[in-house]
Design brief:
127 residues, Thiol Ester Dehydrase, Chain A, 17% helix
Length: 127
């Protein structure tokens, strides 16, 4: 295994310019000690989806990105054995920044788990 998305066992759907989709089968490793999905697992899914979308949406010459800011509003949770899904969409695609919105949903219950937004700084090679 390599990076965090692999360790958390994220499953990727469509990833392309302006959009990325991912799913996560909730297992014990994603849980908090209180028996509910750990907030960091939700953030990891949403931020990863936005990151994969950002890489697929880079302007010409940009080689990478880094997250400048993120915010999440949590509305519900999930339990072990359920599945959550995330759809990330590009809200602003500039030359130096991108702003992404992501919706995380509990596929089992149909409830929205989180509304997520992040700002990505695009990285260019140094002259």
């Amino acid at each position: 295994m390599g990076y965090l998305p692999e360790h958390l066992e994220m499953q990727w759907g469509e990833v392309g310019p302006g959009r990325a989709a991912a799913r996560l089968a909730v297992k014990r490793l994603h849980m908090a000690p209180n028996g509910f999905l750990h907030a960091a697992s939700v953030i990891a899914l949403a931020d990863s989806a936005c990151g994969f979308g950002c890489m697929a949406s880079r302007p010409e010459g940009a080689v990478s990105f880094t997250t400048l800011e993120l915010k999440s509003n949590f509305l519900a949770s999930a339990r072990e054995g359920e599945t959550i899904a995330c759809e990330a969409t590009l809200g602003h695609g500039g030359r130096t920044t991108q702003v992404w919105d992501a919706l995380v949903v509990n596929e089992t219950s149909g409830k929205t788990i989180a509304l997520f937004r992040c700002t990505q700084l695009l990285i260019y090679p140094r002259p």
